[in-house]
Specification:
The protein is of the alpha/beta class. The protein is built from twelve helices and 18 strands. It folds into two domains: about 200 residues, Alpha-Beta Complex (Quinone Oxidoreductase, Chain A, domain 1); about 130 residues, NAD(P)-binding Rossmann-like Domain (Rossmann fold). About 30% of the residues lie in helices and about 25% in strands. The structure holds zinc ion (2 copies).
């Protein structure tokens, strides 16, 4: 048996003792070493996000671990190897997959939604996940909670592919949750000057992650501030890292002509926003969306973390044993810290 966080139905998450998974010949068994919780997990727990969620699934899509069992026909993997898991299991056949947009796969299935995820002692890696490259080994050993962050980092890298950041650019990141802070770090790493906008308590972390300027302003005051900071021009790129509708209109006023806005965050279902289309027309502004990540992004994220190209350790503020699941979830809800990691506890 093993401990696992089981989502029986929306609103009913419980820590229970479940059978330790068994694997087929073409599968792997991973001992989880860390699973970080994100805002999406809270939405899954509360039932405000239900698409693709199988009742009874074990939650957790940001995890890293170690191979403890290798199926008889599996090649190229061995017991003891540290691995990071890209949670998107794709078909490889549908038009988006064929176009290289596997993050938009028509039959996307995710760990922590459809397949049992990382809030457990062990995870079975099904054959479909093996075939399409979900398992990535870092080039060198990495502290497990840091390696778990390859998942959110890969999503940020996918976003940057859509709206590349280059040296000398000025980037406004709206939203200073862990994802916004990762965007601050990536944009600063690329040589951009970063303006971060978010909650007062998150502005010091934003500076620690590379933001040159921080502000808690919103609306017209934010627009005025950004214009002042950019000689009246506006920024080259706005990354919307918070799903707040009021940030959409202001972001169009903060971007320079010819600039771009990346709708990185998910917005609450059913939300609508009014914008002035002439601002987009006359100022040639690009509106771009990005969601999830491609395998290449995950591989790059693992490499960046392992090689220390980017330091995400300031994000890891809390670690809880899995048997303190409620406390860990509470810490995420109350925004006590930035990223909360859970490490498995042995079944007793
Ligand atoms: Zn996540
Ligand atoms: Zn597909």
């Amino acid at each position: 048996m093993m401990n696992a966080a089981v989502l029986h139905k929306p609103g009913h998450l419980s820590l229970e003792s479940v059978p330790r998974p068994t694997i087929d010949a073409d599968e792997l068994l991973i001992a989880v070493e860390a699973n970080t919780i994100c805002g999406t997990d809270l939405r899954l727990m509360d039932g405000t996000k239900t698409a693709g969620v199988r009742p009874g699934v074990i939650l957790g899509h940001e995890f890293a671990g170690r191979i403890v069992e290798v199926g008889a026909t599996v090649q190229g993997w061995s017991v003891g190897e540290q691995v990071s898991i890209s949670p998107a299991v794709v078909c490889g056949q549908c038009p988006p997959c064929q176009r290289g947009q596997e993050n938009m796969c028509d039959s996307l299935r995710l760990f922590g939604y459809e397949f049992d995820g990382g809030l457990a002692e062990y995870v079975r890696i099904p054959a479909d996940a093996m075939t399409h490259g979900c398992v990535v080994a870092p080039p060198q050993e990495v502290p497990a909670p840091l390696l778990a962050l390859a998942e959110p980092l890969s999503c940020c890298l996918n976003g940057l592919r859509r709206t590349p950041v280059e040296s000398g650019m000025t980037v406004l990141v709206i939203g200073t949750g862990p994802i916004g802070l990762m965007h601050c770090a990536l944009a600063a790493h690329a040589g951009a000057r970063v303006i971060a906008c978010g909650r007062p308590g998150r502005l010091a972390p934003a500076r620690a992650m590379g933001a040159a300027v921080t502000t808690e302003l919103s609306g017209e005051a934010l627009r005025d501030f950004v214009l002042e900071e950019t000689g009246g021009q506006g920024v080259d790129l706005v990354i919307l890292a918070v799903g707040a509708s009021e940030s959409i209109a202001v972001s169009i006023e903060c971007v320079r002509s010819g600039g771009a806005i990346n709708f990185f965050a998910g917005f609450p279902k059913g939300i609508l926003s009014s914008i002035d289309p002439n601002l987009i027309h006359y100022r040639e502004i690009s509106l771009v969306g990005s969601a999830n990540a491609r395998f290449e992004d995950h591989r790059q994220a693992v490499q960046m973390i392992a090689e220390g190209q980017i330091d995400l350790s300031p994000l890891l503020t809390h670690t809880f044993p899995l048997n303190q699941l409620d406390e860990a979830v509470g810490a995420v809800r109350e925004r006590l810290g930035l990223k909360v990691a859970l490490v498995p506890t042995a079944h007793d």
